[in-house]
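agent> fetching stored inputs for the flavin-adenine dinucleotide docking request
agent> found them:
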Amino acid sequence: TTRIARSVAADRPFWSFEFFPPKTTQGLANLYSRVARMRSNLDPAWINVTWGAGGTTTARSLELAARVQKGHLHPDLDRVRGEANDVEQGQAGFTRVNGGDADTAVGQDACDVCLHLTCTNVEKEALDATLQKAKELGVRNILALRGDPPRGQEYWVAADSRFQHAIDLVRYIRQEHGDFFCIGVAGYPEGHADYVDRDVQRDIRHLKAKQDAGAQFVITQLFYDVDQFLAWYRDCRAAGITIPILPGIMPVQNYLSFRRMTNLCKAKVPQPVLDALEPIKSDDAAVKEYGVSLSIHMIARIYLESDIRGFHLCTLNLEKSVERVLEGLGWQADRGAEADDLSGPTAALAAD
Ligand code: FAD
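agent> prediction call returned; pasting tokens
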């Protein structure tokens, strides 16, 4: 089993962070030090790296995944590489292995990666190449996804008819790579937006099928309606879905991007949230502040009202809000918390 597989089985709070690869090389380089800081200060169980549907971010996603997995996050990495022979243990954050080649050195900030991978609008050869590359990089966790249609197209087309749904990718990875990868899949507490009727039960049947095909954990679409989430979670368990389900939590960072994002994935925004945001919507600092307290509140409720222990935090590549959410829950230095230590979430709700 991979470390992720062990994490999701543990009965204590844990969290994962999601990052997307920035568009430019400079943007990527700028992200490294932030990821390194968040990795060491906030102790995520693992880090997710997103994937552009159709393989549009292949090079950048793999680069980010490789750097995080190996802990090669030092901003001066390229200089360090050039001076590989001079790199001594501890210097520049690297530990010397295999005779001092910086490419194979494992940095102090090494962290398990869960690489997202979509299976539509790509040829099978491209999937094979990515899985092989992931293996070589030491990435042992894949979030197996179908993918959305490219921008401007309403429907996606399966470039290879063998890959119509995420389940086809789950099966394929199992068939080709056995148990090497720990496989996660996506879940939709409000039903998938593909269908106008948003039939939640149909989606639950498809989720169960993904579990039966070999998926080991679920990360949900972002949501803001905790009641709906908890009802869906109970329905999943009643339908025989036994694998861990991590709620996808995205702290609100900015009013317009929040509305755009929730529209895009058709997440319902409860009226009290809309009411709270309305008078502060043009004050970015106030919106962020509210976003932090809303996320704390959501996580604390889910923690106290269910057996869920793992939470997936969408960082939008930002640091502060996620840090403050974990701080608010009393969790950031608390990975070893006892299973029945509810003081953090209880205090967070009481302070509300
Ligand atoms: P599926 O599981 O295939 O489900 C898609 C739809 O098909 C659902 O309505 C489902 O009910 C239905 N369905 C499933 N199986 C069957 C079947 N056997 N027969 C008939 N219908 C079926 N997209 C990206 O491009 N890159 C990313 O990095 C990315 N990360 C994501 C992370 C998370 C946590 C989530 C929730 C989504 C992410 N997405 C990403 C978006 C995702 O690709 C889309 O939501 C996509 O529309 C569906 O992907 P899926 O894997 O859930 O597909």
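agent> quick read of the result: The longest strand covers residues 14-19.
agent> awaiting further instructions
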